[in-house]
Amino acid sequence: MALPQRLVECVPNFSEGRRQDVIDEIVAAIRSVPRVWILDVESDPDHNRSVITCVGEPEAVVDAMFRAIAKAAELINLDEHEGEHPRIGATDVVPFVPLRGVTMQDCVELARLLGQRVGEELGIPVYLYEAAATRPDRENLANIRKGEYEGLKEAIKSDPDRAPDFGPRELGPAGATVIGAREFLIAFNVYLNTDDVSVAKKIARAVRHSSGGLRYVKALGMLVGGQAQVSMNLTNFKKTPIFRVVEMIRREAARYGCTITHSELVGLTPLEAMLDVAQWYLQLDDFTASQVLERRLEEVIGE
Amino acid sequence: MALPQRLVECVPNFSEGRRQDVIDEIVAAIRSVPRVWILDVESDPDHNRSVITCVGEPEAVVDAMFRAIAKAAELINLDEHEGEHPRIGATDVVPFVPLRGVTMQDCVELARLLGQRVGEELGIPVYLYEAAATRPDRENLANIRKGEYEGLKEAIKSDPDRAPDFGPRELGPAGATVIGAREFLIAFNVYLNTDDVSVAKKIARAVRHSSGGLRYVKALGMLVGGQAQVSMNLTNFKKTPIFRVVEMIRREAARYGCTITHSELVGLTPLEAMLDVAQWYLQLDDFTASQVLERRLEEVIGE
Description:
Two copies of one chain form a homodimer.
Chain A: E1 7-10, E2 13-14, H1 20-31, E3 36-44, E4 49-56, H2 58-75, E5 91-100, H3 104-122, E6 126-130, H4 141-144, H5 148-158, E7 177-181, E8 186-192, H6 197-207, E9 217-224, E10 227-234, H7 242-255, E11 260-266, H8 271-282, H9 293-302
């Protein structure tokens, strides 16, 4: 089967990482919608949270998410939920990501559409975030999730700044859901030839946005298997490309007498991000994706 | 339409680059076979030669090539052919290239199959070359083409070393055809920040196989638009990858006080070659092509 002309990715986070039967029922709700495909399901018992990566045609994905949110509200009670990861809802976060034949603005529309249905039909308060945010202080997920489920219970009623974009101004046991649109997120880690975690921490501070570094980089320094690692989320590879991050880390590491031993991509990365890397290092000024044989074959045969 | 599970590339060279009606008839002969797609037709009047790039299912491509060779034999008379490029036949060279679901050995079989049909049914002498060669001195195209059409006329009869693999030991006006199997060829040029062509020539000598450099590199130094250029054919990007060639040129250029200003890929390149570049520079030890989102989508949706 040829790939659909229009594809979005959606990565809903559910506040259940322990009861496999609950996770299975949520997955089944998503699978019940044709033209939606699940790429990955990751459940973390410590976080008590599951992250489902799916792709599909835009309208189908909205439908699948609605069913999954309804199912999660039925099976997960936030009053009984414990876990390390911050959360405000049974379905905690639902980001739409443009993949193919779809713009960011299209994804903002999908987020609003889903948000309205969830608010009105399920009675769950919905906050729009990132590219779909209706106010600047809601672009950042952390602001919306402040105080978590327990804190929001009171604040949603009393604080006008915490009024949801859709749905009632009160929380039931399913909590509230954050829905939005963002760019594809690349999880990328760089390892250094040292067991001194302080070097990784200093480099993380240098490259990440929050402390003065590159705009679309979140970074932490940690020790993994006895090796210092700079662990990152790259939240917009088009504006802050991987090669620039790596070369900055390389230079900072050199200043501490260190080098990069290797790096790793966790999960998936768009082809464009990898081609950008090859193009930059080879200095291929006029390169276009149509020069990739497989892309050209799709153009000639696939359509 | 989804891409076929088995695909070969074929890049036949015909000794006609001036008469458009002849080129059109050859192209039409290829197009008359279903499941074969033409990606590119390049005609050079000075060389009096056309290169057609096509892809398709293996058996269909063999059929299309047979029809094209028959058509070229009907319309091109080597006794009347002039051009700068060395040639021995109306259809001069026909390389098969494995693309997808097909091995190099499969392509060797296709070359033999086509060679036998061309020799027996069309009475055109056929030499097998590169991976399909039946003797080591026929791996190199230049050896087979020695003396060109005019020289081969006599030699094919008198010299046992010039006996063809298929077909008669005498040349008609369609000459002989060289058929074989090889890896995908990447045409890659690197530009230097100098107008001194001697630097490009020295670097070309350093990196190319024939004068002691990298195994699967052919290189020439030239002046293009007033800028020194190292012009290359990379004949096996799996064994001599692009990044290694570029880094060697970078180092050699530095020795002459020069740097690379930019580079270019002429025509198409397999995705794998570009991913290899990104993987090497980012030091992504455990990267696999399945981590490319689009590849993953094909696996999940496309099959």
